[in-house]
Amino acid sequence: MNAALTFEQPWALILLPLALLPLLRRRRDTVAFPSVDWLPRDPVGRIVGWLWPLFAALAIASSVFALAQPGRPQSQVLRTGKGAEILVLLDRSRSMDDRMLPPNWRELDPTVVLYHLGKGRQKAEVARDLLSQFVARRPDDRFSLMYFSNRPLSVVPFTQHDAVMQAGIAAGGVGRGLADTEVGRALIAAIARFDQRTYSGSRIVMLVSDGGANLDDETMQRIRIGFKRNRIALYWIYLRSYNSAKLDTTESRWENAPEIALHRFFQTLPTPYRAYQAEDPESLSTAVADVERQQNLPLDFLEQIPRQDYSRAFLAVAAFSCAMLLLYRSLLVRSLP
């Protein structure tokens, strides 16, 4: 940590010699009598006589230092905690505005499931609420947030400030999503966020999406190399739509489904991969809770300490000195005949 004192406006220090003016002797300070030995000693008056020029000099010097804006520069502090560096990659495509099934949908008659589907909460809304709670319960983690649909959109860089991350999650509720879901581009952009960061502990990309993709060979290769290079684990929370493919299905009719293709590709990654399938708010909550249990390892990170401005402290000293001078002046005026 850099502890040096710096000035934002160092040119103001050229005014500092003005603080010597109150200490200089003036002509009216000269005693007009050859001797004052016969006068009684006045220790209080002697102290006051020395204090007022000192207060005047202090007021000028403090004002000059305040103009120069002294302070400690921005610095970095190494912190150690438990948690992970987590990049939340949240799908903001139009399908995320669809409704989720109720928790008891498996017990319902299949003929009325679609009726209840229209009354459920939106996938994106439920995902934002659970992610907000997830972030709030993990104060030691470093979070980053990125939305994606037809292109990735970086919202929050890596931070440990809960309020910033919460604001970014809440911003996802503005407007409607777009039609396309470009998972490949989003993953490449998420990997790039780790490229310039020093490896300090557990890293994960938490992909929250209800769709898949058939990626081309070049895109798959870039994703594999990126995950291996930056040692990133992938957690996919798959928000399955009604009548969509299940990730563990063996039915031939889902053989070419984008979700199945993406899941199989993720299984070939050289880094850890876990998939969670959620059809309703309860199963989504369970998936998020399991991610929370998995990632609780030692984590070293650099915390940015903002610049500390000491101008107010010098202004307070100057104001106090001026108040003492006004008090001295008022007492002096009252003592005059």
How does this model look, in words?
The chain is of the alpha/beta class. It has 2 domains: 6-26 and 42-74 and 307-335, no CATH class; 77-304, Rossmann fold (3-Layer(aba) Sandwich). It has 9 helices and 11 strands. It has helices at 43-68, 113-117, 123-136, 162-171, 183-192, 217-230, 258-266, 281-294, 311-335, and strands at residues 6-7, 70-72, 75-83, 85-91, 142-148, 152-159, 203-209, 233-239, 273-278, 297-305, 308-309. The strands form 3 sheets. The chain has a 6-stranded mixed β-sheet, sandwiched between helices. Strands 1-2-11 form a 3-stranded antiparallel β-sheet. Strands 3-10 form a two-stranded antiparallel ribbon. Helix 7 links the parallel strand 8 (233-239) and strand 9 (273-278). The longest helix is centred in the N-terminal third of the chain and has 26 residues, at 43-68. The mean pLDDT is 78.
